[in-house]
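User: quick one, sequence for these tokens?
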């Protein structure tokens, strides 16, 4: 073979590897439907890297191996946008949306219903990506709309942005615009990591994305979980389709990531329906959005409509209620939880966040208070999403008033005055009062009666608090001694509701061992552990006397859980309460202990992902473990089966990637039924 053809062969091989990798990236990031395993991808990647190391003259800038630059850059240079990067007008309600649509039709001098695209408004950073002959040549921030910064080196590290467009027919020059963002999950794991390493914590996903794009060292950016949705084009030298929706579809074909939630709507009514649907699903989306965007679909009509100052007349955004607001921190109180954990709680000047008035928010623990350096009197940022407890995420230091007071953890419990203890290395401080602490006993009783524990109908939190405060009961055993008369004398209780509660208490006595164990509120003993313990030992007495060695044999029980179990049953007071409960008539059916022969799934590794409907993930986990399976949190080659519930995400993808068996909830149910779990 001649030298020339050798070289040709080599070049072809390198080109082929790059094309394969590009296509796999496309299937993974854009189509969300990978066809090879991570391992197979890595092999291709390493083969290419090896060849490039050996023949550096074959390296091209669009090679998938060349995403991350080796050196930090000196600073960001300025980029003048060829076409300005515009902003959008806002509408906040149906009336304003109708006005917008009215203006569009008036300008078009047409009464015909206008077709709009409806798109989520991603809460990230606008970027411009310039592709010349299909090659990513320049990436810049929006800046002031006319001049932005050159962030090409950083943008190249984002896996979902192609360095080279795929397919054919793309314009000679194509400027794509989109929003770079960090997924909620990526943001939360980044912050967890930062907290663990005492590094800077970001206030929200948007700031984290902004901070990541502004790194001078692209190797840092490469470690940040950034992503993109492309939503429009800027300067184009070539042909494109004539509607926004077709342009998005075309961008996708060229390997650019667009948002899967984009739809078209006829007129404002359908736009509103879209808005409500997305608002409804806001918390389920894996990324933060702050509203939706409507754009006139036809480019011909867009051109007729044109612009007014810096915003197009053919598009507007329909904003969601904000999830973050600032307000004043009036005071901090310390709340005592069921296990004595002391939580600093912020009392706030009431503020509307996402449509709900918030006057309390968690400050988590004193480490967080110190990290944020939050003080009473400060102006603080409060974040609230979905049903989660609002939290203080940041202090607006510029607005710190003179005399803002530092927050000090009390040395004794605010409820029972027992000393507060904080073991070395733990973030959480605890009241040492145990059950003499009224706060702890109230929480313990609420937990005992809760739906997933003893399921006492009609015993609300307020009633439990009154019962403890008035000295009617001091622990869970006291519940079953209460008479209808005693209950009827409580606030907001009548004879009828008191009687109903006595009946409900009576009914709750017939329970199951796992529920009872869970209801006791032993630290670290959740539902799944309780089920495992019950199945392993079969009865309570055996659990009470089990030694550590034996406890460690129970699936999912480690040294910490074993220690808390031993501690719990070592306290005479606890044993007494358990006895009292049984004497009051609390009972459960006997359990057949599962022996090793009954472990048909021994040695099998399962992973649960997504949400199950008929059972909780913890229940499914415990039942699988009962049959001998190991339930793991992550998918690997060693996984035998993935159970994919609703909205399963990356784990499902990985399973498909690795060719691991995937079953749904119905199939899981059948499997469990087959073995009578
Ligand atoms: S279109 C001329 N579409 O919102 C149209 N923008 O307030 C300009 N944004 O700077 C933008 N998601 O950063 C458009 N689907 C979407 C968007 C979107 C987020 C951001 C973008 C823009 C800002 C305008």
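Assistant:
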């Amino acid at each position: 073979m001649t030298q020339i053809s050798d070289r040709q062969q080599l070049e072809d091989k390198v080109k082929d590897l790059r094309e394969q990798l590009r296509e796999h990236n496309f299937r993974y990031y854009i189509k969300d439907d990978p066809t090879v395993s991570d391992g197979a991808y890595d092999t291709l990647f390493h083969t290419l890297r090896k060849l490039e190391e050996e023949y550096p003259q074959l390296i091209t800038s669009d090679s998938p191996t060349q995403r991350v630059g080796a050196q930090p850059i000196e600073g960001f240079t300025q980029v003048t946008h060829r076409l300005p990067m515009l902003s959008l007008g806002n509408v906040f309600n149906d009336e304003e949306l109708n006005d917008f649509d009215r203006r569009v039709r008036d300008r078009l001098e047409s009464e015909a219903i206008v077709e709009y695209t409806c798109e989520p408004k991603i809460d990230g950073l606008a970027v411009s990506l310039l592709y010349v002959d299909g090659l990513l040549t320049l990436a810049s921030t929006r800046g002031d709309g006319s001049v932005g910064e050159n962030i090409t080196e950083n943008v190249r590290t984002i896996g979902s942005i192609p360095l080279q467009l795929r397919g054919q027919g793309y314009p000679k020059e194509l400027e794509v615009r989109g929003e770079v963002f960090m997924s909620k999950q990526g943001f939360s794991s980044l912050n967890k990591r930062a907290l663990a390493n005492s590094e800077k914590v970001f206030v929200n996903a948007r700031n984290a994305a902004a901070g990541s794009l502004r790194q001078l060292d692209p190797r840092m950016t490469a470690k940040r979980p950034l992503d993109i949705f492309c939503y429009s084009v800027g300067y184009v030298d070539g042909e494109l389709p004539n509607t926004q929706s077709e342009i998005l579809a075309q961008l996708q074909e060229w390997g650019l990531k667009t948002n899967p939630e984009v739809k078209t709507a006829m007129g404002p009514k359908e736009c509103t329906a879209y808005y409500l649907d997305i608002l409804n699903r806001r918390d389920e989306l894996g990324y933060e959005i702050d509203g939706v965007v409507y754009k006139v679909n036809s480019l011909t009509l867009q051109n007729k409509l044109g612009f007014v100052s810096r915003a197009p007349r053919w598009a507007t955004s329909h904003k969601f209620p904000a999830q973050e607001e600032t307000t004043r921190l009036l005071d901090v109180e310390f709340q005592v939880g069921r296990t004595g954990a002391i939580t600093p709680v912020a009392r706030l000047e009431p503020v509307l966040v996402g449509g709900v008035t918030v006057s309390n928010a968690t400050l988590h623990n004193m480490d967080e208070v110190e990290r944020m350096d939050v003080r009473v009197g400060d102006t603080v940022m409060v974040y609230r999403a979905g049903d989660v407890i609002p939290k203080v995420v940041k202090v607006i230091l510029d607005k710190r008033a003179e005399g803002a007071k530092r927050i000090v953890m009390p040395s004794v419990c605010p409820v029972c005055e027992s000393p507060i203890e904080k073991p070395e290395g733990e973030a959480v401080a605890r009241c040492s009062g145990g059950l003499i602490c009224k706060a702890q006993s109230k929480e313990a009783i609420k937990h005992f009666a809760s739906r997933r524990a003893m399921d006492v109908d009609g015993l609300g939190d307020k009633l439990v608090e009154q019962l403890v405060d008035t000295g009617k009961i001091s622990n869970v055993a006291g519940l079953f001694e209460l008479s209808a008369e005693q209950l009827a004398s409580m606030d907001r209780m009548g004879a009828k509701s008191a009687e109903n509660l006595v009946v409900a208490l009576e009914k709750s006595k017939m329970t199951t061992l796992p529920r009872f164990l869970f209801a006791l509120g032993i630290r670290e003993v959740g539902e799944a552990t309780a089920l495992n313990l019950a199945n392993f030992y079969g009865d309570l007495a055996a659990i009470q006397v089990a030694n550590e060695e034996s406890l460690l044999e129970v699936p999912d029980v480690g040294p910490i859980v074993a220690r808390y179990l031993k501690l719990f049953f070592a306290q005479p007071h606890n044993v007494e309460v358990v006895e009292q409960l049984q004497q009051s008539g609390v009972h459960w059916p006997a359990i057949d202990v599962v022996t090793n022969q009954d472990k048909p799934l021994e040695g099998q590794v399962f992973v649960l992902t997504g949400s199950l409907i008929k059972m909780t993930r913890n229940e499914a986990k415990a039942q699988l473990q009962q049959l001998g399976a190991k339930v793991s949190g992550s998918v690997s080659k060693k996984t035998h089966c993935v159970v994919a519930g609703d909205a399963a995400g990356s784990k499902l993808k990985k399973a498909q990637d690795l060719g691991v068996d995937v079953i749904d909830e119905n199939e899981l149910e059948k499997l469990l039924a087959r073995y009578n779990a």
